[in-house]
């Protein structure tokens, strides 16, 4: 029986799936299984998966559904004591599983290990940028209520018994299902961090305004659910959580907009964040967003002239 089960949901992932699988095969920790959920792909994803020769890999095909449902289907096929999740367009550094397993074995009270992230700007592998390091360990419940510092769905290694204690991903969520899952885990289990950039996260250049709107809607729904379950002494954090969501939306509009409509949406979201939590004006990130907003607005105005 393998120690670690790796769950990979894949939907129309023909451009990236082979490299993603390869990053698992190159892990320095070898006692693992690879569970791929073909989530109703209509491109060459399944054919490419069938071309991979690896006895540790199993592929299960289902009709297309939400990513949360695909991950839960993957969990149902796993047998490992520890479970990791990897999106079909992300990659891992070769020692990711070994180091995360090591810190979990050193801290028997912890249920989840996470690492620092890189991300590819616009999905290009020649533009690799590190996320700002975070060092939250132990009881990280309040930190996760305020923001998703784990950053994406390809990061954590989690004990099976931790998942069994809180349940899987919320199948009703169309976005932010990983953050919602992490909050429920943090309410019951301690987290440990590997202080190293080990997750390579692709951010698509094709993100549309409608996608940002979807993320905002689902994130707001998540916050309502999370604070309904949160103890009374943490309710004061809700405005800060909402502000973080609007800061994130500001960033996405600035990143993917080249017209006044998108820039105005970014301005509106940033103003909402400031009104909810004025202290963000003292943070480096908010100041960067303000400068970015002004720069893009001036650029568009000059182009119009």
UniProtKB/TrEMBL annotation:
<dbReference type="InterPro" id="IPR050834">
    <property type="entry name" value="Glycosyltransf_2"/>
</dbReference>
<dbReference type="GO" id="GO:0016740">
    <property type="term" value="F:transferase activity"/>
</dbReference>
<feature type="domain" description="Glycosyltransferase 2-like prokaryotic type">
    <location>
        <begin position="5"/>
        <end position="246"/>
    </location>
</feature>
<dbReference type="InterPro" id="IPR019290">
    <property type="entry name" value="GlycosylTrfase-like_prok"/>
</dbReference>
<dbReference type="InterPro" id="IPR029044">
    <property type="entry name" value="Nucleotide-diphossugar_trans"/>
</dbReference>
<keyword id="KW-0808">Transferase</keyword>
<dbReference type="Pfam" id="PF10111">
    <property type="entry name" value="Glyco_tranf_2_2"/>
</dbReference>
<protein>
    <submittedName>
        <fullName>Glycosyl transferase family A</fullName>
    </submittedName>
</protein>
């Amino acid at each position: 029986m393998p120690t670690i089960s790796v769950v990979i949901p894949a939907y129309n992932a023909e451009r990236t799936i082979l490299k993603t699988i390869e990053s698992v095969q190159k892990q320095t920790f070898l006692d693992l299984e690879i569970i791929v959920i073909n989530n109703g792909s209509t491109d060459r994803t399944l054919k490419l998966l069938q071309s991979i020769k690896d006895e540790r890999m199993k592929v299960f095909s289902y009709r297309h559904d939400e990513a949360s449902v695909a991950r839960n289907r993957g969990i149902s096929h796993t047998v490992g004591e520890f479970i990791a999740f990897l999106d079909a367009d992300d990659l891992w550094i070769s020692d990711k599983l070994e180091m995360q397993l090591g810190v979990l074995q050193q801290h028997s009270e912890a249920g989840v290990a996470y690492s620092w992230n890189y991300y590819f700007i616009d999905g290009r592998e020649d533009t690799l940028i590190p996320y700002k390091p975070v060092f939250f360990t132990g009881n990280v419940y309040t930190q996760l209520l305020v923001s998703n510092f784990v950053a994406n769905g390809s990061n954590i290694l989690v004990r099976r018994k931790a998942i069994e204690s809180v349940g899987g991903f919320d199948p009703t969520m169309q976005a932010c299902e990983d953050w919602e899952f992490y909050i429920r885990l943090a309410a019951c289990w301690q987290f440990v961090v590997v202080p190293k950039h080990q997750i390579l996260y692709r951010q698509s250049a094709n993100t549309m305004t409608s996608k940002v709107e979807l993320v905002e809607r689902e994130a707001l729904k998540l916050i309502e659910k999370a604070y309904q379950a949160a103890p009374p002494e943490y309710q004061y954090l809700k405005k800060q959580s909402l502000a973080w969501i609007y800061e994130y939306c500001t960033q996405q509009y600035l990143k993917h907009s080249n017209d006044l409509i998108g820039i105005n949406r970014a301005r509106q979201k940033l103003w909402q964040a400031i009104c909810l939590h004025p202290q963000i004006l003292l943070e480096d990130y908010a100041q960067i967003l303000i400068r970015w907003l002004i720069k893009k607005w001036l650029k568009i105005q000059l182009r119009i002239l």
